[in-house]
Amino acid sequence: MNIAYEILLMLDPDLPEERQTEIVTRARELIEKGGGTWQSHDVWGRRRLAYEIDHKPDGAYHLFLFQAEPETLDELSRILKITDGVMRHLAVRQVEGGRTSAPPPMPAPDDRQPAYAEANIRSHEDSSSHEDSEEES
Q1: What contacts 136, CB < 8 A, 6 or more positions away?
Q2: Residue 24 near residue 43 (C-beta atoms within 8 A)
Q3: What is the pLDDT of residues 4-32, one digit of tens each?
Q4: Residue 23: CB partners within 8 Å, gap ≥ 6?
Q5: pLDDT tens digits for 65-97?
Q6: SS3 state at 24
Q7: What structural domains and CATH numbers belong to the chain?
């Protein structure tokens, strides 16, 4: 009995496009060879990581939706673990009626200081001016 799965795949962002396509094609072939059906491949693109992995601040994300036997998923996970260029992957069972979509892109970082930083600077200046006036007395 085929079960609906999704895999979120994080690839090394420095991989050439051809190598990324090769990894995705290999995963698709493995699923189809195991009697599964490929539903979709959604490229989420390059995203900033919460923390560095292998000294890399970004990852290239791909979402696979497919149906397969649990044994096929086990084999696919095994292959992804040993494939160069795959930084992480997570396979989960799809929730019936649910749909995973890419998060909105992060806004570009700006060089402005947050409002609290300005308040801290003013507070520090106020306290130092208060200390100066006490010394003069």
Answers
A1: none
A2: no
A3: 999 999 999 999 999 999 999 999 999 99
A4: 9, 11, 83, 85, 86
A5: 999 999 999 999 999 999 999 999 999 998 887
A6: helix
A7: 3-97 (3.30.70.60)
